[in-house]
Amino acid sequence: MRYINKKDLFVVARNSGMIMIGIGILYLIPIIVDIIYLEFNLLGFIVPSLISIAIGYAFMRIFDKYSSRRIRLKHGMIISALAWLWAAIIGGLIMLMVSDLSIVNGVFESMSALTGSGVTIYQNVEILPNSILFLRSLEQWVGGLGIIVMIVAILTRPGTSSSRLYQSEAREEKLKPSIKATLEHTIKIYLIYTIAGIILYLLAGMPIFDAICNTFTTISTGGMSIKNANMGYYQSDVIYFISIILMILGATSFLVHFKVIKTRGRSLIQDLQFKVMITVIAIVTVILYFISNIVPMDLLFTVVSAATTTGASIQGADLMMGWPSFVLICLMGLMLVGGSSGSTVGAIKLSRVIIFFKGIYKHVREILSPEGRVVPIKLSNVKISEKAVGDSGNYITLYMICILITWSLFCLYGHDPFKSLFDTISIQGNVGLTLGEIDFGLEAPLKIISIFNMWTGRLEIYPVLITLRAGFEIFKR
C-alpha cells in the first residue's frame, strides 16, 4: 500500500518553500554583527541565505496550486524533519565559507547548535569571527523554541496548517485556543526571559556581546559557549547562579510560565514535572556531594546542566573524566530523562518517564487487585489513557535503540566504551556534556551518525522515521 503519492510530495514542497525562505532570512541576521565588528564576511552569509530563499521561492511558485490543500500530520512531520536538516546544511555552508570547516564538520556544528546539543567541532572557538559565534548562539536560541514554531508564528495565518506544523515539532501544549495565538504568547515569554537574562548577565559584569550570546545559549538549554572554557571562563559564582536560573526556566513548560502570573506562582508549585525536576536536582546534588570531593558549585551547576539538557559547564572534559564513575553514571541518568515537556529541553522528558512508571505501577496493582478491576492513571489530576502509556513505552524503547546503535558504532571504531556511552547519551538527548570522545578528530562516519542522533533527538524520532519511510517509497517506485 502506498502511503505517499505525488500530491503529498507537492504539498510538502509548497510548504517547505515557506520554511526555506524563513531559514534564509534567519541566516542573514548575523550580518549585523559582521558589519559592527568589520569582519568582512558578508558573502559567506549572503550566498547560502540567498540560495535558501531562492529555492524556497521557486517551490512556492511552482507548487502554488497546492497551497490550499489541507496539511495532514504526516505532511507536517516531513516538512519539519526536512526543515531542520535544510537549516543545518545552510548553516554548514556558511561555516564552510567563513571559517573553512569541511561540509561534514560545518553541518555537524550547525546541527549541534540548532538542536541545542552544544557539542562543538571547533578546536578553538575564541579565534572565530564574532559573526560566527553569534550565528551559533542564534541557532541555539531559535532551535530551542523550534525553527518551525518561529517561522509559523511569523509567516503563516491561523488555521489547520499552523496546527499541523506546530504538532510536527513534538509540541501539543496550548496557551490559547488557537495555535497562532499560542505561538505568539510562547515567543513573548521567551523574549521576556531572554531580555531578563541579558540584563542580569550585564549587571554581573559580563560584556554585552557575551551577555547576548550566553543568554541565547542558556535560556534555550543549548550550552554551546563562545569560550573554550565554557561558563568556567568567567570565574564568577554570580554568573553561575544566573545561568542555573536560566537553565531551569528553559527546562520548565511554557504552559506553566504562562499561568504563573494568573495563579500568582501556584502553577509552578503545582506542576508535577517542575516539582520532580527540582526534587531530582536537589537529591542528586546532595548525594553526589557526600560521595565525592567535587567543588559544590561545580557539582550543582553540572547536575542542573545535565537535568535540563543544557550542556553548559564550569569544568572541562579533562577534569570531568577524573570524577568518580558513580557521579558520571548519575549524570547519564539525568541526561536520559531531561526536563519538562513543552519546554526547550531534549532527552526523553519527564512526562514520558512519569507516565511510563505509572503504567508499570498500574500493571502491578491490577495483578494484585480482584479480577476485572481497572486501576486508573492520573497525571496532575488528568486521566491518562492506555494509549498514552503505550506511546511513552514505545518512544523510550526507540530512544534506547538509537543510543545502542550509535554506542556500538563508537565501540566498533575503537573508542572507550564508557566515554562513548556518556557522549552518545549526550548527543541523542541534545545535551552537550562530553568526556572528549566527540571532537574535531572524530571519524567522518561517526560524525554523520552523530548528526542523525542530534536530528532525531530534537524531533523526537518519529518525524525522521516518517520522512525516511516516505523517501523509501519514492525510490522504490
Describe, in short, the structure shown:
This protein is an all-alpha fold.
What does this protein look like?
With 477 residues, the chain is mainly alpha-helical. The protein is 68% helix and 1% strand. It contains 22 helices and 2 strands. It has helices spanning 6-26, 31-36, 42-62, 73-99, 103-114, 130-145, 147-155, 160-168, 179-203, 208-219, 237-250, 254-260, 266-270, 272-291, 296-307, 317-320, 325-337, 350-368, 386-412, 417-428, 444-459, 462-476; strands at 377-379, 382-384. A two-stranded antiparallel ribbon has the order 1-2. Strand 1 and strand 2 form a beta hairpin. Helix 5 crosses helix 6 and helix 14 runs antiparallel to helix 15. The protein starts with 5 loop residues before the first helix and ends with a helix. The model has no long low-confidence stretch (mean pLDDT 89).
Secondary-structure map with pairings?
Blueprint: H1 6-26, H2 31-36, H3 42-62, H4 73-99, H5 103-114, H6 130-145, H7 147-155, H8 160-168, H9 179-203, H10 208-219, H11 237-250, H12 254-260, H13 266-270, H14 272-291, H15 296-307, H16 317-320, H17 325-337, H18 350-368, E1 377-379, E2 382-384, H19 386-412, H20 417-428, H21 444-459, H22 462-476
Antiparallel strand pairs: 1-2
